[in-house]
Design goal:
By secondary structure, this protein is of the alpha/beta class. The protein has three domains: 6-85, Arc Repressor Mutant, subunit A (Orthogonal Bundle); 113-120 and 365-465, Alpha-Beta Complex (Aspartate Aminotransferase, domain 1); 128-360, 3-Layer(aba) Sandwich (Aspartate Aminotransferase, domain 2). It contains 16 helices and 15 strands. The longest helix is centred in the C-terminal third of the chain and has 21 residues, at 366-386. It comes from Glutamicibacter mysorens. This is GntR family transcriptional regulator.
C-alpha cells in the first residue's frame, strides 16, 4: 500500500476555495483526486495531524472532511494505516484496449499486468468535465438525440483544432465517430471496393487492419525501419501494387514511435497522388509528444486526397469512445453516407465533454505528459539494468517502446509470462507473422504496475533465451 505525504497532498490540492466551508472544499478536492486517479485506490492519506500542519487548517476541518470522505465511500479507516483512499465498490477490472491476441485482456479477477494496452488513464478533471456537460445536456434532450455527423460544438472545435495546426478546416468537413477504428472503417467503406487492396507499413496498428479487412479489403505490406517510413520503398510499392488506399501513420507511429517531418509528408502525399491512391492518415498519436511539440503540418495539408482520422482515446480518455474524420471537401458526402451506414451517431453527453475539453485542453494534460515522459525514461533505464542485451528505442512521443530483442523469441516470451500480458511483434505484422525480434512495451501504465512487470519479463526472458 502506498502513502501520500501531507506536503505532496498540499501541492495537489492547491488554493482553498473561500466560497464554501473549508471542510467542504477539502472533502470535494480529495474526492476529485481519488475519482480522477491522482490518488490511487488503496493509498493511505496523511494523518490528520500531518494534514493540519501542511494545509494550515484546523483539526476539526480535516477530521470532518475525512469523515465525509468515508461516508461517501471514497475512503475507509484501517487499523495501523489511518484513512485509506478507495473507489466506491473498488476499481473495475478490464477496460484495456483489446488486441487480436485470441482474447480480450485479463480474465475477471485477474491481477495480471496488462501490457497489451497502450493508453493513459483519465486525466484529472474528467469527472468535473462530465458534471459541466450535464448542465448543457438539457438543450439537446428536447430533441430526439440523433446527430449522425456529430453535434455542432464538437465539429466546430475539431475544425478549429485543425485550422490552428495549419490545415484550414470547416465544421462541414468534420464527421464525429465512436472512435478511431470506426473512422478507419468508415473511410475504408467509402474508398475501398470489396476485394481491393490497402497498403500498410509493417509493423502497424493491428486493429486498423482488422477494421479494413472486415469490409473485405485485401492487405499488402511495405516495411518500416527503426528510423521511420521508407519513402522509396513506399513509392515502389505504390507503383507495383496500385492499391486503392494506404494506411499512413506519420505521427509517432504505433508501434515504432517515429515522427515524419514535413518534407517526408509532402513526398509521401505526392507518391499517393501519383498512384491514384487515397491515404487514410491515422493521427491518433499526433498530440502525444513528450519532449518538444513537433513543428509539422497535418499530412492532409499536402494533398486534397488524404482522409485524416483522429481519436480522443489517447489524448483525453478511452472511455469517451469518440473519434472523428477530417474529410476533403469532395469526399465529405461519401464519407458521411459511409459513416451513417454504421450507426446513428455518438453519445451526446460524451461529445459535450470533449467539445469543452478541446476548448480548455486540446491535448494531453501537463501532468499526464510529464508522467509519460518519466515512465518512458524510467523504463529505458530499467531495461538497461535488467535486460542489457535488449535495444529499446527512445521515442519522442507516443505511449510505448519498440524493443529489438537479441533472439527472435517474442512470441515465446509472451507465452512464458504468467502475471504479465504482452503483445509479441507478430501482433503488429501486416502478414500476421514475423517480427519475432521485436516486442512492444507500453509505458502508459501506473509506475507500480511497470515495477511489477519488468522483473517478471526479465526473469521469463532468461528462461526463454536459454
Amino acid at each position: 500500500m502506498g502513502r501520500v505525504t501531507a506536503t505532496a497532498l498540499a501541492g495537489m490540492l492547491g488554493a482553498i476555495d473561500a466560497s464554501m466551508p473549508a471542510y467542504r472544499w477539502l472533502y470535494l478536492a480529495l474526492r476529485a483526486l481519488i475519482a480522477n486517479g491522482r490518488i490511487l485506490h488503496g493509498t493511505a492519506l496523511p494523518s490528520e495531524r500531518d494534514a493540519v500542519a501542511a494545509l494550515g487548517l484546523s483539526r476539526t476541518t480535516v477530521s470532518r472532511a475525512y469523515s465525509e470522505l468515508r461516508d461517501a465511500g471514497y475512503a475507509s479507516a484501517r487499523r495501523g494505516s489511518g484513512t485509506v483512499a478507495q473507489l466506491p465498490g473498488g476499481p473495475v477490472s478490464g477496460g484495456a484496449e483489446p488486441l487480436p491476441l485470441g482474447g480480450f485482456g485479463p480474465v475477471p479477477g485477474s491481477h495480471a499486468v496488462d501490457l497489451t494496452c497502450a493508453a493513459p488513464t483519465a486525466p484529472a478533471g474528467m469527472i468535473a468535465g462530465f458534471e459541466a456537460a450535464l448542465e448543457q445536456l438539457p438543450r439537446y434532450a428536447a430533441g430526439m438525440g440523433y446527430y449522425p455527423l456529430g453535434i455542432e460544438p464538437l465539429r466546430a472545435a475539431l475544425a478549429e483544432h485543425y485550422t490552428r495546426k495549419g490545415l484550414p478546416t470547416s465544421p462541414e468537413q468534420i464527421i464525429v465517430t465512436s472512435g478511431a477504428l470506426s473512422s478507419v472503417a468508415a473511410a475504408g467503406r467509402a474508398v475501398l471496393g470489396r476485394g481491393q487492396t490497402v497498403l500498410a507499413e509493417s509493423p502497424t496498428y493491428p486493429n486498423s487492419l482488422l477494421a479494413l479487412k472486415a469490409h473485405g479489403a485485401r492487405t499488402a505490406a511495405v516495411p518500416i525501419g527503426p528510423e521511420g517510413s521508407d519513402l522509396e520503398q513506399i513509392a515502389d510499392a505504390l507503383q507495383a501494387i496500385s492499391p486503392a488506399a494506404m494506411l499512413c501513420l506519420p505521427d509517432f507511429h504505433n508501434p515504432v514511435g517515429t515522427l515524419l517531418d514535413d518534407a517526408g509528408r509532402e513526398r509521401w502525399a505526392a507518391y499517393l497522388d501519383r498512384a491514384g491512391t487515397v491515404g487514410i492518415v491515422d493521427e491518433t498519436c499526433a498530440e502525444l509528444w513528450l519532449d518538444e511539440r513537433p513543428e509539422v503540418l497535418p499530412m492532409a495539408a499536402f494533398s486534397r486526397n488524404l482522409i485524416s482520422v483522429g481519436s480522443a482515446s489517447k489524448s483525453h480518455w478511452g472511455g469517451l469512445r469518440l473519434g472523428w474524420i477530417r474529410s476533403p471537401r469532395h469526399m465529405a458526402g461519401a464519407l458521411a453516407r459511409s459513416r451513417m451506414s454504421m450507426d446513428l451517431g455518438a453519445p451526446v453527453l460524451e461529445q459535450l465533454v470533449l467539445a469543452n475539453a478541446l476548448a480548455s485542453q486540446p491535448a494531453l494534460s501537463v501532468a499526464t505528459r510529464n508522467g509519460l515522459r518519466e515512465n518512458r525514461d524510467w523504463l529505458i533505464g530499467e531495461l538497461g539494468k535488467l535486460l542489457p542485451d535488449w535495444e529499446p528505442n527512445r521515442p519522442a512521443g507516443g505511449l510505448s517502446l519498440w524493443c529489438h530483442l537479441p533472439q527472435p523469441r517474442s512470441s515465446a516470451l509472451a507465452r512464458r509470462l504468467k502475471g504479465v500480458l504482452l503483445a509479441p511483434g507478430s501482433t503488429f505484422a501486416v502478414e500476421g507473422h514475423g517480427l519475432e525480434h521485436y516486442m512492444r512495451l507500453p509505458f502508459a501504465q501506473d509506475r507500480a504496475q511497470l515495477q511489477q512487470a519488468v522483473p517478471a519479463i526479465a526473469a521469463a526472458w532468461r528462461q526463454v533465451a536459454a
